[in-house]
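Here is the promised in-class demo. Please do not try to memorize the tokens; focus on the logic of going from shape to residues.
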């Protein structure tokens, strides 16, 4: 059982996926920082000093709908999605360039069928 688990865990796909998750979470932190520290302050300046991160609707007591935080998370998601789209698109272009084009196969003239050969022999015998 240990051997089977080791084979599974060390397969290329599992290791690649683990690396992708780690890099993805680090990338997510970078995007969150860009949104919180660069984009949202600029949006605040454009909107006259409105700070979206603190935007909320207070309900009863300590309850609040924090729609500003939600807006920042939506912007995070959109930036990550667009970035990943361009990364995948670039990888696909590079893969296409790296693949060898299929060598054209020369078509050999079709060999005569048995019926055609017999007809040719018959014609020769008639002459």
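The designed amino acids, position by position:
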């Amino acid at each position: 059982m240990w051997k089977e688990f080791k084979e599974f865990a060390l397969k290329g796909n599992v290791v690649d996926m683990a690396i992708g998750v780690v890099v993805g979470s680090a990338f997510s932190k970078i995007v969150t920082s860009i949104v919180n520290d660069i984009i949202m302050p600029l949006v605040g300046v454009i909107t006259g000093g409105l700070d979206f991160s603190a935007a909320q609707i207070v309900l009863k007591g300590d309850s609040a709908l924090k729609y500003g935080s939600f807006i920042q998370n939506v912007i995070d998601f959109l930036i990550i999605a667009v970035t990943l789209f361009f990364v995948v698109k670039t990888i696909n272009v590079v893969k296409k360039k790296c693949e060898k084009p299929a060598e054209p196969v020369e078509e050999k003239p079709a060999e005569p069928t048995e019926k055609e050969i017999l007809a040719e022999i018959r014609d020769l015998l008639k002459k």
